[in-house]
Every structure is written in structure tokens, then in C-alpha cells.
Amino acid sequence: MIKLSPKLSQKLSYLFLFLATILAIIPGVLIISIIIAKGWSVFFTLKFLTSMPTSGMLKGGILPAIIGTFLLVIISIFFVLPIGVGAAIYLNEYSKNNLFTKIIKLAIINLAGVPSIVYGLFGLGIFVIYLKLGVSIIAGALTLSMMELPVVITTAYGALNSVPLSFREASLSLGVSRWKTIVHIVLPNAIPGILTGAVLSTARIAGETAPLLFTAVAFYTPHLPHSIRDQVMILPYHLYITATQIPNMEENRIFATALALLIIVLSMNFIAIIARIYFRKNRKW
Predict the structure, then answer these.
(1) Which residues of 31-57 are buried (b: 16+ CB within 10 A; e: fewer)?
(2) Which of 38, 41, 75, 256 is deepest in the core (most CB within 10 A)?
(3) Which CATH class is domain 75-219+256-281?
(4) What is the end-to-end Cα distance of the chain in Å, rounded?
């Protein structure tokens, strides 16, 4: 059996990890390169991004799909962020470590792994049929909120839990109430983790299709929505139907739609990275 020196073993390990990293990056780079190469000529025309679809989506732009995607994301975050952070505060700061709390935490972890299509069926039954919201923006946004709630709670809980206990003890020893300690001491120091989780959840919402099939999306609407009770086009579903359901669709238009969705998702991830770096630099511990 060949015995390698520690220095050689370390170099081989670094080489293996470097090659593994390159192999992981190459497929993503290739995919992005192909999308950009085939979609940029259509994407960078103002008409494609700012006009309505015409001729059964064979011509025109994707403005309704872009607006619909942003509406669903904004409304979903409006619901899920305060509820998710509030639940995380309760679990981390107020709840006792008993059987009931352990069951809640286990349920949250399990709900984060439920397939998105199941949430779509849940949204259909509760929001569309029972609450009579119909297939609409608000029904889709509420469905997405339910789907992302476990993720936001988990990330916010982790961020709150990472704040040193000594911060709380120092504040409480000065006679500050627990609630004011949470608001003025714990939450400001947990913002990097909470914000990162919220932005990454937003990026995931922007790319979802399955939960919205039964609750919000329309195959084709050549106009902008007038209220939250209207159906709406979204980029992921629009990309699917143009690629598979519409004959004679120009390939460049399909890749341009994919490029628009890719830019939105990557921009949100980039914002999360910048925000995390900024808050970590200004963190005092």
C-alpha cells in the first residue's frame, strides 16, 4: 500500500476539490451562455419587454408576464415576511422547550419539503373554492405565501438564534423589557440572516409554476391586470407554454423569455449576497 506524505495528500485533496468545483460550475455556465447567445437579440429590443403579446403570443412582448411575476412576488412577501418573522420570534424568544414546541418545529421542517404542486392543490381547495377568491392574483399570492412560510420561519429562527445570549442578558439586566430587547437588540443583529432568507425566498417564488397552475395563471391575457382578483400571466408558465404549446414559435423569443426570468432570479440572489456582505461588515460582534 502506497503511503503518501501529509503535504502531498493535502495537495491532492485541494486538486480534487478544485476539479469538483469546476465540474459543478461548467453546466451552469453553459446553460447561461446558451440562453444569452440565443435570446439576447430579441431580449434587448424595447418592444419585447414593454409591449403586449399579439397574434396568439407569436409576436409582441412579455410585459403582462413580467408585471404578473412581480405582483405575485410583492404580494406574497407582504404576507409571508411579517408572519414568518413573528413565528420565528415566538419560537426562539418566548416558547418553552417542551413537546409541543418540538412538534411545531418538526412540522415546519417537514412542510418545507412538501412538493410545490401539493401547495397548489391546497390553494385551489382553500383560497379558490372555499374562500371564493377564484383563480386570481390574490389566491396565487396566498398560496405562494403558504409554501414559503416554513422557509422564512426556518431562516429567521436561525438568524435570531445566532445572536449571542449575552446581548439579551446585558439588556435585561439593565431593566429593559423582553419585547424592547427583541426589537432594539436582537432583531437589528439578526437582520442579515432574515433579509438573506427573505430575498432568496423571493427568488424562489419568482421561478415557481406548479402552485400557480390552479390558483392564478392564465394561458393568455393580452392586457395588464386591473385588480388582485384578475388572472395573470407569469414568466415561468409563459416560458413553458411558448416552448411546448404554441407551434411555429421563434426559438429566439423562447430563449429571450428564459433570459428575462433568469435575470430576475439572479438579480434577487445578487441583492441577497450584497445585503449579507453589507450587514456583516457593519455587525459589531
Answers:
(1) eeeebbebbeebbeeeebeeeebeeeb
(2) 256
(3) mainly alpha
(4) 49
CA angle 65, 66, 72 (to 5 degrees): 85
Q: Which of these, 240, 199, 200, 249, lies nearest to 217 by C-alpha position?
A: 240
- CB burial of 226-242 (b: ≥16 within 10 Å; e: otherwise) equals eebebbbbbbbbbbbeb
Query: What are the domain boundaries of the chain?
Result: 75-219+256-281
Helix segments in the chain, DSSP class H = 6-43, 46-50, 63-89, 99-112, 116-123, 137-161, 165-173, 178-181, 187-206, 235-244, 251-281
- Specify whether the CB–CB gap between 145 and 122 falls below 8 A: no
Output phi, psi for 214, to 5 deg. Answer: -100, -5
Residue pair 127/215 in contact by the 8 Å Cβ criterion: yes
Distance, CA of 207 to chain centre: 8
Give me 113's grid cell: 419539503
In this predicted structure, what is the pLDDT of residue 2? 63
Cβ atoms of 153 and 91 within 8 Å: the answer is: yes
pLDDT at 271: 81
Please tell me whether residue 244 adopts helix, strand or coil conformation. helix
Of 84-88, 160-164, 185-189, 195-199, which range is least confident?
195-199
Helix axis angle for 251-281 and 6-43, nearest 10°, is 130
